[in-house]
Design goal:
single chain; alpha+beta; 7-stranded antiparallel β-sheet; 4-stranded antiparallel β-sheet
Length: 174
């Protein structure tokens, strides 16, 4: 009699599988919600941000933080494509790029440790000096000779950014 009562209390294999599938489904729904509303992930194409972010790397960004400071990496949307660029100027900053001092912010030449080439203006690009407008940022690629950035198309509206980069996952040779 005790064996019969124990057999009735034990769940069947089918109910265990259904419960497991329900747990997996809830976890998937949770991840979809998290990566739809709070975080984003994109793959970088091109070498405009090399060596910090290379071609093929995955970038995880936080969608809700658009309060940028100088040196932040931002994911921007331009012509329907996402790209990563470094914020060098925020609202109110006076940005000047010239052949004598390179990049100047608010009249001070910038010494950027991870930039290995001089920052030069782009022919036919933005006119310098310029003041970054309200709700805008000035962005540059780290690989300055090959990057299309604010030197080419001017400041970027914060509304055209997707968020602040949290992590870079090296994906090369996987």
């Amino acid at each position: 009699m005790a064996a019969q009562a124990e057999a009735k209390k034990r769940p069947s294999l089918l109910s265990d599988l259904l419960f497991l599938l329900m747990k997996i489904g809830l976890i998937l729904v949770f991840l979809v919600v998290i990566f739809t509303f709070f975080f984003g992930i994109t793959q970088v194409s091109g070498n405009a941000m090399s060596p910090a972010v290379k071609d093929g790397d995955l970038v995880i960004y936080y969608r809700l933080d658009r309060d940028y400071a100088a040196d932040d990496l931002a994911v921007i949307s331009r012509k329907g494509r996402l790209s990563v660029r470094r914020v060098v100027g925020i609202a109110g900053d006076k940005v000047d790029i010239n052949s004598q001092n390179g990049l100047e912010i608010n009249g001070y030449p910038q010494q950027e440790d991870n930039i290995y080439t001089k920052t030069l203006p782009v022919v036919g690009g933005a006119k310098f000096p310029l003041t970054v407008g309200e709700n805008s940022v000035f962005v540059l690629g780290d690989n300055r000779p090959y990057a299309k950035d604010s030197r080419t198309y001017g400041t970027v509206s914060v509304g055209d950014t997707r968020g602040k980069v949290l992590a870079v996952i090296r994906r090369r040779n996987l």
